[in-house]
Design a protein that fits this description.
Strand content of chain A: 15-25%
CATH topology of the largest domain in chain B: Nucleotidyltransferase, domain 5
Oligomer: heterodimer
Radius of gyration of chain B: 27 Å
Strand order of the largest sheet of chain A: 2-1-5-4-3-6-7
Distance between the termini of chain B: 52 Å
Largest sheet of chain B: 9 strands, mixed
Number of domains of chain A: 3
Structural class of chain B: alpha+beta
Helix content of chain A: 25-40%
Number of helices of chain A: 20
Shape of chain B: globular
CATH architecture of the largest domain in chain B: 2-Layer Sandwich
Structural class of chain A: alpha+beta
Distance between the termini of chain A: 63 Å
Number of strands of chain B: 33
Largest sheet of chain A: 7 strands, antiparallel
Shape of chain A: globular
Largest interface: A-B, 103 and 84 residues
Number of domains of chain B: 4
Radius of gyration of chain A: 26 Å
Number of strands of chain A: 30
Strand content of chain B: 25-35%
């Protein structure tokens, strides 16, 4: 591998070849092919336990709240050639980055810099494989008999590595030169000796070099710990046996993943969505497209149709790949100890280079779109795919916390006048999306990290010169649906004992939510920022008044309003108020299917305004803590009729009156496959109204289009898209012309054509139609 | 006439009593637990033990100078959600703290399997309904400065409403109350005025630590069990007095120290998790008698294995725990659990085709297949039976006849799917479960910079003697001690009987170098004043009282704190330097010499004073003639047992443990049976009964090599 290949990988982004080009280092590839099952399970647990303790070591040594509270890091043990065997339950995203870093290092550092016992490498180059420049990977080879046996790796979000905005999420970046300088893999420790020149180079970029050094040390402490434990396991069981277990874990994860995929009909599921917030003040919306094709070999992901890289919100191709893995593991391999390599064996990636989701260097990438929007989109298309398989539906999870990126970096001077920089995590908190059989979990977080904590109010107040006026649960909560999304929180702050302090409204434009609902469920809000400067808080404090809720601050500071998005320096000193409301979980299923008794509970619990019980759920409350069953049935019928009557198109097609003669499979949970006159058709899974020929048609065109402005869903949690963009966005619901049920939905412009979200593979349709798939599955047909 | 110490421990099924006389002789009594009124079982168990001494309850209590008690009443009320209706008063804007749970409630204390599979996880059921929460305007900042003054009017209104809604207990938790407690104290005054006699828990008293969510959760749970515990304590005290006991009754706390009923009344939450802790205290006491420095205690029951570590004679402690998915600030002996017990289910992961064991348990119903109650899933107990470790006729002293035929068939079916023989599969189930235990022990020691090879293992519980040797061997532990059967059965009660007093008083500070020594001295004086008050309460009941100061520190930019010793006397620069040195040494031991960053400075985050009231040590009785050969009638008919070390069955001698006497020795493979447990002496292991009746097992623990094939044949032949 020469300069040319190396430089191409750093420009276009590295994706590993099928077979690595290895020179300069001997790989230890021997393994016992047939480890008996008991030893296998013993060592599988041991690897998990080592990796877990590796995390704990980092957590305890690290000085970073990002690490300790939000678990914004991860660890892995990888095979000699970089295949990830086991990951920890923190940020899942790094699972798809670790192998890139290690494989790149083998290919490009093996021949020249060399890989030797006692070496430790470090890098933070997004085009090699890390989310953004702050995500610093530290990793080391483990040698057995002079040959490279395996790797231990961790990646930690280091809090400050430079860039024009403190904290490094550079909202105004138009290219990578605005951001922290990325370092491709460097040898931080050479055969046991720290390279002080590299330590200096690394921390020199930082506004907080001491913290940065401490973070480095925590990472190296973790690496040393994990390495010693792996070496002990090798000594105890033998290198061949342990490697046999690693290979076995990959193999078995692959098998488990494939077994689940086998339940899904061959076909392609597509999502095309809008995203906004490329730069502060950029009022354009952009397209992000993703298609997953399930075929006999596995899955193929493709992002053709995505707009070209722009502004600050891009990601490198390897990051896009990692985002997809991040979504696939907890949905389809949750019981395999997060073995990334096993899942990756089943997936092909076809990145469209130069796009937002597969950008070339030097596109700006620091705002971390990959871990949020790309994961959310991958989660969405995988969920849709899974919804075609009844046995996989219980594992679905709707769009959750962080689906539309929200975060708040802070900097300024603390109460003693010393400079500070910090990152309160309230913005990353949020509800889980709904499941296919129950409501989402309030404050449950999402699959970006399986343990997304936000730290306590007092912990943050001890370190940041501000007061929490409130940290409250958002009433009105998550997205509507048969099953509701989980609700989240809203936090309001005021500056305290400081005359110089700033907070960012980081992330995307929240008015363009990515919390799209599934199977007819409503979206979850993308959150919001709200601010009021120079209020009379101080006078109120004197008089014993403490505005302790979003409503109370709005009442006391009527001059406040939505805060400009993507601004890194909103002032937050005494008298100023800043509020963040992070994302709320998306709903699942048509809300008219929600049990009326649950709607009664929602109202009683303050989670649903009384008028929405009727408007959205068609439930008529009886005023005595119950509901009127008969009136509810009538109201629901009226809503269904209304949906069918109000088609948003000027010339809607005539409603289909044909029915499928039987149901033999599914394209989506709400769209089934059957026959009409012997020909395969798609139809409504509830009433079997035939909608479109299965090979060639788009069922959405045959649906009624019920459209409403996003803010009309609930003006308390959805802001108008025109408040941040020049585009009017609507929630478009595809309604069955037969029964009036919602089959699916999009967040789009009012006159956008309906893209085809599912296309079953024609030559395999026969299998779906005649195969046993539907035999055991619930069907509404007798 | 010598005086008694009595310890009573209420368990799920039995209430155990240990009466220790002045010579250290232990007499045990067991009575069924009486869930509706646990005090009945309490006194019944004493009656049973007293009868063995030829005494009735009244005469036994009349000779008792200390009656101590470990109770799960509080824990049970929490788990079963049977506590009081709590009214919670908190700072304006923060009434949802227990709902939000720092966004971590879904995964708090939940098994990793559930954490990774979202649909299987959820938040805990709340302990306070939203309608029972009141926010009041008041605010203190991180420095303890009042930002918004408390309004009496708002408190009165809140209290009146909550009383009207049926509040049975109050919890008050304001932000930063531990830095300035005036608002919480004033709130209590008002509650006492408006709702006299109602229990009030204040967060700065219950859990004076940074972190409003765990502090509020601890305060609310304390309030939740307060009325119940108050009644319970009063009942025990009254009945003890009515039966002739003259002294105060003491209660075991989760920190391993005893408390008076009045102290429990002030902080009922301190009794939570005291059950497993009492056993650890018993172990520490035994460790002292055996002069063992480092001990790992394991208690293997039906569903979990509880592990604790005693280093340098002291059980390792922690300052927080998770109860019902809520994080609590509680000083506790660190007892951790893994889902690995006799009832753990062995299953095949359908998606990858490999054998897994636990964490799910078959429970008591239907229980293991061999119980014959319709259980179809193979458990660890079934595997033990198939291997011949357990005699189906003698399980639970013969009270239950096990169905080895059913167990064998079920294990065979599982083995078929794995391509293994029935014995291989059973041995494999054991190995998997033993290695899980090993992983937990490794985490609890290695993670803290402790070398497990320097420790002995105390194996308790029904499964301890069966499995202890295996995980001890994997970890290279020194020795396995199975406590003498008679005392093992009431080990927790014994721990209660011999326990000391202990209480730690904390005060958070937040101070960077250079430290203000005078201010630290003032804080120490406040803490020691609290300590003195505590001392006055316990002085009459103990032989000596010590105060130990400690500090928690961290490096400037770190989050996690590490403890440091702090010297006696008036603080000066020298004492502070020594404290820093102690912190740095502890830090380096835990994380490695290079891991810290001294240049960032040391931050002092808290000071504590721990009061320990030592009771007089009971001499351990060690009677019995010493003879290496067991009495002939101790031997039972041998039976074939499958030893993994041989890969085959071998005819194995079986001994009646109740007839073994101090000095007896056995070589493995052998089996020692007791009514409630079985102890394996594995091949190449050696057993000696020590002077206290403990079984001491030693093996080739330091030999990491598996026994080679020739040796295997040789020892098989030697049989």
């Amino acid at each position: 591998m020469g300069f040319k290949e190396r430089w191409e990988s750093l420009r276009d982004g590295y994706l590993p070849p099928e077979k690595l080009d290895v020179s300069g280092v001997d790989l230890h590839t021997d393994y016992e092919a047939d480890v008996e099952p008991i030893t296998y399970e013993v060592l599988r647990s041991r690897l998990w336990s080592i990796n877990w303790d590796h995390q704990d070591t980092i957590r305890r040594v690290s000085g970073s709240g990002v690490t300790v509270y939000a678990d914004d890091f991860n660890t892995t043990i990888a095979t000699e050639d970089g295949d990830g065997v086991v990951f920890g339950p923190s940020i899942q995203f790094f699972a798809g980055c670790a192998d890139l870093a290690i494989k790149w290092t083998i290919e490009h550092r093996g021949p020249n810099v060399g890989i030797r016992p006692g070496d430790v490498f470090i890098h933070d180059d997004p085009w090699v494989g890390t989310n953004h420049q702050m995500d610093t990977a530290v990793y080391a080879p483990v040698f057995v008999d002079g040959r490279l046996y395996c790797w231990v790796y961790n990646c930690v979000h280091q809090q400050e590595l430079g860039g024009v905005e403190p904290g490094g999420f550079v909202q105004q970046a138009v290219d990578a030169y605005w951001e922290a300088t990325a370092f491709p893999p460097l040898k931080l420790i050479d055969r046991g000796e720290w390279r002080e020149d590299l330590v200096d180079a690394w921390i020199r970029r930082s506004r907080n070099p001491e913290l940065c050094l401490l973070e480095l040390k925590s990472q190296v402490a973790g690496i040393e710990f994990a390495k010693a434990q792996v070496e002990a396991a090798i000594a105890e069981y033998g290198a061949g046996v342990l490697k046999g277990v690693m290979r076995g874990m990959i193999h078995r994860t692959e098998a488990a993943f494939r077994r689940r995929l086998d339940l899904v009909p061959n076909g392609t599921w597509t999502d095309i969505r809008y995203i906004a917030g490329a730069l502060p003040g950029d009022r354009k919306v952009y397209k992000m497209a993703l298609a997953v094709t399930k075929n006999d070999e596995g899955l193929v992901f493709d992002n053709a149709g995505t707009d070209d890289a722009t502004g600050s919100f891009n990601m490198a191709p390897g990051v896009w790949r990692a985002a997809i893995l991040n979504a696939a593991m907890p949905l389809l391999a949750y019981d395999q100890y997060l073995c990334g390599a096993g899942v990756l064996r089943c997936i092909q990636f076809r990145p469209a280079l130069g796009t937002i989701t597969s950008a070339r260097h030097p596109a700006a990438v620091s705002t971390s779109l990959g871990t949020t929007s790309a994961v959310t989109q991958a989660q969405y298309v995988l969920n849709k795919m899974m919804s075609a398989a009844p046995d996989l539906r219980p594992d679905m999870l709707g769009a959750s916390a962080l689906h539309t990126q929200v975060y708040t970096q802070m900097f300024g001077k603390d109460s003693k006048g010393n400079p500070y920089a910090n990152f309160p995590f309230d913005g990353v908190g949020g509800g889980s999306g709904a499941f296919s059989f129950r409501d989402g979990i309030n404050h449950g977080g999402g699959i970006i990290s399986t343990r997304l904590r936000i730290g306590g109010v007092e912990e943050w107040e001890r370190n940041i010169p501000f007061l929490y006026l409130y940290r409250k649960e958002v009433a009105g909560g998550g997205g509507h649906g048969q099953w509701r999304g989980g609700t989240g929180l809203a936090s309001g702050w005021t500056g305290h004992k400081t005359d110089e302090s700033f907070i960012s409204s980081g992330g995307l434009f929240q008015s363009v939510t990515h919390g799209h609902g599934l199977s007819g469920g409503y979206p979850g809000s993308g959150g919001s920022f709200w601010a009021a400067l120079d209020t009379d808080l101080a006078a109120g404090f004197e008089e014993g008044r403490l505005p302790g809720s979003p409503a109370a601050v709005r009442e006391m500071a009527p001059h406040g309003g939505l805060a400009a998005a993507k601004k890194y320096d909103h002032r937050l000193v005494e008298g100023d108020i800043f509020e963040v409301t992070p994302c709320l979980g998306a709903g699942h299923g048509d809300p008219l299917k929600r049990l009326p008794s649950l709607v009664v509970d929602d109202v009683a619990d303050g989670q649903l305004p009384l008028e929405d019980a009727l408007r959205v759920y068609g439930v008529v409350l009886d005023g005595h803590g119950g509901f009127d069953a008969e009136a509810t049935d009538e109201a629901r019928d009226r809503v269904r009729a209304q949906r069918r009557a109000d088609d948003a198109r000027p010339n809607p097609p005539a409603a289909s009156e044909r029915r499928l003669d039987h149901v033999s499979g599914w394209a989506l949970e709400t769209v089934c496959v059957g026959r009409v006159d012997g020909e395969p058709w798609l139809g409504c899974a509830d009433c079997q109204t035939a909608l479109a020929p299965a090979y060639s048609g788009n069922y959405r065109d045959a649906c009624c289009w019920s459209q409403q402005l996003l803010e009309d869903i609930d003006p308390r949690v959805f802001m108008p898209s025109l408040s941040q963009t020049d585009t009017t966005l609507v929630l478009r619901q595809y309604v069955c012309p037969g029964c009036g049920g919602i089959l699916d939905s999009d967040v789009c412009q009012a006159d956008d054509p309906a893209y085809q979200d599912v296309q079953l593979e024609p030559e395999r349709l026969a299998d779906v139609l005649d195969g046993p798939a539907a035999a055991d599955a619930p069907s509404t047909l007798d | 006439m010598s005086q008694f110490r009595i310890g009573v421990d209420i368990g799920g099924t039995f209430t155990d009593c240990a009466i220790v006389d002045g010579d250290g002789t232990v007499t045990v009594g067991k009575a069924p637990t009486t869930p509706t009124d646990p005090s009945i079982g309490f006194f019944n168990s004493i009656t049973v033990a007293a009868e063995k001494l030829g005494l009735d309850l009244r005469s036994a209590l009349g000779r008792t100078d200390r009656l101590a008690h470990g109770t799960t009443v509080g824990t049970n009320a929490i788990v079963a959600r049977q506590g009081a209706k709590v009214g919670l008063i908190t700072t304006m804007g923060h009434g949802d703290t227990l709902r939000i749970m720092d966004n971590g409630g879904r995964s708090n204390g939940v098994s990793i399997e559930k954490i990774l599979h979202y649909p299987s996880s959820d938040l805990p059921e709340p302990f306070v309904a939203r309608a029972m929460v009141r926010e009041v305007p008041e605010r203190v900042d991180a420095d303890g400065d009042v930002v918004v003054a408390l309004s009496d009017e708002a408190i009165r209104e809140a209290v009146e409403q909550l009383v009207a809604q049926g509040a049975e207990a109050f919890a008050v938790c304001y932000l930063w109350s531990f830095m300035n407690n005036a608002h919480e104290l004033r709130t209590r005054e008002l509650i006492e005025e408006l709702a006299p006699g109602t229990s009030v828990s204040l967060s700065h008293e219950i859990a004076p630590k940074v972190g409003e969510y765990p502090r509020m959760a601890t305060t609310v749970l304390s309030a939740y069990i307060a009325p119940l515990m108050e009644r319970y304590v009063a009942t025990i005290e009254e009945r003890a007095a009515a039966n002739g006991y003259l002294g105060p009754v003491f209660f075991m706390q989760g920190n391993g120290g005893l408390a008076t009923g009045e102290m429990v009344g002030r902080m009922p939450i301190s009794t939570v998790q005291s059950g497993p802790v009492a056993g650890v205290i018993g172990s520490a006491d035994m460790a002292a008698a055996l002069q063992a420095e480092g001990v790992i205690t394991t208690d293997m029951g039906g569903t979990t294995l509880d592990v604790s570590v005693i280093a340098n004679g002291r059980p390792l402690a922690r300052e927080d725990t998770i109860v019902e998915q809520h994080t609590l600030f509680l000083d506790l002996i660190d007892v951790r659990s893994v889902g690995a017990g006799g009832g753990s289910v062995a299953w095949i992961d359908e998606s990858s085709g490999v054998l897994r064991v636990g964490p799910r348990s078959a429970g008591a119903v239907p229980g293991p297949v061999c119980y014959g109650n319709g259980g179809e899933e193979v458990t660890v107990t079934d595997a033990d039976l198939v291997l011949g470790f357990i005699d189906p006729e003698r399980f639970l002293g013969g009270r239950m006849r096990l169905r080895d035929d059913l167990a064998r068939a079920a294990v065979a079916k599982l083995g078929d799917r794995l391509g293994m023989s029935v014995e291989e599969c059973a041995a494999g189930i054991n190995k998997v479960i033993d290695s899980k235990m090993g992983d937990l022990i490794r985490t609890m020691t290695v993670q803290r910079g402790l070398d497990p090879r320097k420790f002995s293992l105390y194996a308790f519980g029904g499964g301890g003697g069966l499995h202890g040797a295996m995980y001890a061997k994997d970890l290279g532990l020194q020795e396995v001690v199975v406590p003498s059967a008679e005392t093992a059965a009431v080990w927790s009660a014994l721990g209660v009987a011999v326990g000391d007093f202990s209480q730690t008083f904390h005060r958070p500070v937040y101070m960077t170098e250079p430290f203000d020594v005078a201010s630290l001295q003032r804080t120490i004086e406040v803490l020691e004043a609290q300590a003195e008050r505590y001392k006055a309460e316990i002085e009459a009941h103990v032989e000596s009282v010590t105060f130990t100061r400690s500090a928690s520190c961290k490096y400037g930019m770190q989050v996690y704190e590490v403890g440091a010793q702090l010297g006696d006397g008036t603080l000066d620069d020298e004492a502070v330097r020594a404290m820093i040195a102690s912190f740095e040494a502890n830090y380096a031991r835990q994380f490695g010499a290079d891991a810290g960053y001294r240049e960032a400075g040391v931050v002092l985050t808290g000071l504590s004073v721990t009061v320990e009231g030592k009771v007089a040590t009971v001499p351990r009785s060690s009677d019995g003639a010493e003879s290496s050969a067991p009495a002939g009638d101790a031997e039972r008919p041998s039976r074939p047992v499958y030893w993994m070390e041989f890969g085959s069955f071998a005819e194995t001698p079986v001994w009646n443990g109740e007839l073994l006497t101090p000095g007896n020795e056995l070589t493995g493979p052998s089996i020692v049976e007791y009514p409630d447990t079985t102890v394996l002496v594995r091949p190449n292991w050696h057993l000696r009964v020590d002077a206290f009746g403990n079984l001491r097992l030693k093996g080739h623990a330091h030999d990491p090599q598996p026994i080679d094939a020739d040796a295997r044949t040789a020892s098989a032949l030697a049989l």
